[in-house]
């Protein structure tokens, strides 16, 4: 994969003015892997002031303190240009007390977290790789730059970043790096919940998420101690061949990589340990576990300062995960009204994943889920009515009939309910007639 034209232009401008300029970090790693990089970061020997004067009104001082200038390119995209720097001492396990600029690329690469993230590529395709990142990528290994203990103590977020890169790229942590991540996990308490959340959600969506979670449950336990109760929790029930933790991470691995869905999959049975009962035959039950899962999942997502909409959607999937799958037109229209297409599809994905993570003899629900999905597809293709927006009458129609205030909303809701349940056609005349009839 080549460096995109707009990034090349930035590198050329810097080089033409006599400065070193390299693509660095994630974009180099992804290029070597044949993956599409998310963004292209440029590192340069030029000082921030020099970068600003070179690019003039296309330069935006977005992170001057850390040496970062954002440059707007011809296609209006932004490229971050950061001056080579050395991070000073760390005292809070978060950020360096100070940064110093340097003219040495090698010194800049040395401050980066993992060898696979500490490579640089220039306009002529030369690779700078002082820590063996390319060889690690080829071997599939994630390894710290420098001494792991020191690197995680400098910045504890690197523990979760490491898990994230391992999960997303399918890398195995080098044994020392892995052990050091676990050992320093308590330092994550110093990290802002929002930053933990960002890394965690990327981790959950990684293709090796299950492997990485199974390898480091105790790291998760620092901010989600509730999750540790699932570890090794024997379900004592023939439907299950896994303990609650392994069932949950297996369910997660069976879902498409969508953060709402994967959160819900990981948390759907989090209420099981606290609702466990054993009957006289020695069989385990978890009555009311979905409700218990809802309360825990809600608290856990709040703790990470999850945006409200995200949290509500994930929690609602947890709430619905144990309900029967609707398999009639009416049932699916009702579910559509409450969940909308996006979350109803997520729910079906969750159901499928949950069922596939049960004991082999009990994986037979797939056909039911398939059936529900076919009905759903047909209803949507037929433009079936399941929301107020689609109803053949609106508030203004009811106002014209003499309804007022809250009466209008209530009447619309009642009409929609009847249309969804198949008691009335979604036709204007029929609906207006119904309103007139019930008003009398
Ligand atoms: P993504 O594909 O998610 O953007 P990335 O590797 O580009 O992954 P970023 O968070 O964008 O990750 O960071 C860009 C680069 O900056 C990294 O590749 C790494 O070299 C360096 N870096 C970022 N955060 C840290 C950190 N906490 N400690 C050390 N180096 C870091
Ligand atoms: Mg990046």
Key features?
single chain; about 450 residues; alpha+beta; seven-stranded mixed sheet; two-stranded antiparallel ribbon; 21 helices; about 50% helix; globular; binds adenosine-5'-triphosphate; binds magnesium ion
Explain this structure.
- This protein has 21 helices and 13 strands.
- The protein is of the alpha+beta class.
- Strands 3-4-5-2-1-8-9 form a 7-stranded mixed beta sheet. Strands 6-7 form a two-stranded antiparallel ribbon. Strands 10-11 form a two-stranded parallel ribbon.
- The protein starts with a helix and ends with a helix.
- The model has no long low-confidence stretch (mean pLDDT 95).
- The structure holds adenosine-5'-triphosphate and magnesium ion (MG).
- Magnesium ion (MG) is lined by residues 26, 38-39.
How would you summarize the topology of this molecule?
Elements: H1 5-16, E1 21-24, H2 26-33, E2 41-44, H3 48-55, E3 59-63, E4 68-72, E5 78-83, E6 85-87, E7 99-101, H4 105-110, E8 120-121, E9 127-128, H5 133-139, E10 141-142, H6 148-154, H7 157-169, E11 172-173, H8 175-183, H9 193-204, H10 209-215, H11 217-223, H12 244-253, H13 259-267, H14 272-275, E12 277-278, E13 284-285, H15 289-303, H16 308-320, H17 329-356, H18 366-381, H19 395-400, H20 406-420, H21 428-439
Parallel strand pairs: 2-5, 10-11
Antiparallel strand pairs: 1-2, 1-8, 3-4, 4-5, 6-7, 8-9, 12-13
Helix pairs in contact: 7-9, 7-10, 10-12, 12-13, 12-17, 13-16, 15-16, 17-18
Bound molecules: adenosine-5'-triphosphate and magnesium ion.
Adenosine-5'-triphosphate binds next to helix 7.
């Amino acid at each position: 994969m080549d460096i995109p034209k707009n990034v090349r232009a930035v590198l050329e401008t810097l080089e033409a003015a006599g400065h070193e300029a390299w693509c660095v970090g994630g974009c180099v790693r992804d290029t070597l892997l044949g993956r599409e990089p998310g963004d292209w970061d440029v590192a340069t020997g030029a000082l921030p002031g020099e970068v600003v004067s070179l690019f003039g009104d296309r330069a935006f001082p977005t992170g001057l303190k850390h040496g970062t200038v954002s440059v707007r390119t011809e296609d209006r995209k932004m490229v971050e240009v950061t001056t080579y720097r050395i991070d000073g001492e760390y005292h809070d396990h978060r950020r360096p007390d100070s940064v110093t600029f340097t003219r040495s690329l090698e010194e800049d690469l040395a401050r980066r977290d993992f060898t696979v993230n500490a490579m640089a590529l220039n306009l002529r395709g030369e690779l700078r790789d002082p820590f063996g990142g390319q060889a690690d990528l080829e071997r599939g290994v994630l390894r710290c730059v420098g001494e792991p203990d020191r690197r995680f103590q400098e910045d504890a977020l690197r523990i979760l970043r490491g898990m994230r890169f391992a999960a997303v790229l399918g890398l195995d942590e080098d044994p020392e790096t892995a052990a050091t991540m676990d050992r320093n996990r308590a330092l994550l308490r110093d990290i802002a919940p929002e930053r933990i959340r960002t890394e965690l959600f990327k981790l959950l969506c990684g293709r090796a998420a299950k492997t990485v979670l199974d390898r480091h449950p105790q790291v998760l336990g620092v901010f989600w101690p509730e999750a540790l109760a699932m570890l090794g929790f024997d379900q004592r029930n023939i439907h299950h061949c896994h303990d609650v933790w392994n069932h949950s991470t297996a369910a997660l691995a069976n879902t498409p990589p969508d953060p709402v869905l994967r959160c819900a999959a990981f948390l759907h049975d989090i209420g099981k340990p606290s609702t466990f009962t054993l009957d006289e035959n020695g069989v385990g039950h978890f009555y009311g576990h979905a409700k218990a899962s809802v309360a825990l999942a809600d608290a856990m997502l709040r703790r990470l300062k999850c945006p409200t909409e995200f949290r509500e959607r994930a929690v609602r999937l947890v709430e619905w995960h144990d309900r029967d799958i609707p398999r009639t037109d009416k049932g699916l229209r009702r579910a559509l009204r409450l969940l909308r297409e996006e979350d109803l599809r997520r729910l079906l994905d969750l159901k499928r994943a949950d069922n596939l993570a049960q004991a082999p003899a009990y994986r037979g629900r797939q056909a039911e889920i398939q059936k529900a999905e076919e009905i759903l597809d047909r209803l949507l293709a037929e433009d079936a009515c399941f929301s107020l927006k689609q109803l053949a009458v609106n508030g203004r129609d009811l106002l014209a009939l003499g309804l007022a205030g809250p009466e209008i909303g209530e009447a619309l809701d009642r009409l929609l309910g009847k249309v969804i349940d198949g008691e009335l056609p979604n036709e204007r005349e029929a609906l207006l007639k119904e309103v007139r009839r019930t008003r009398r």
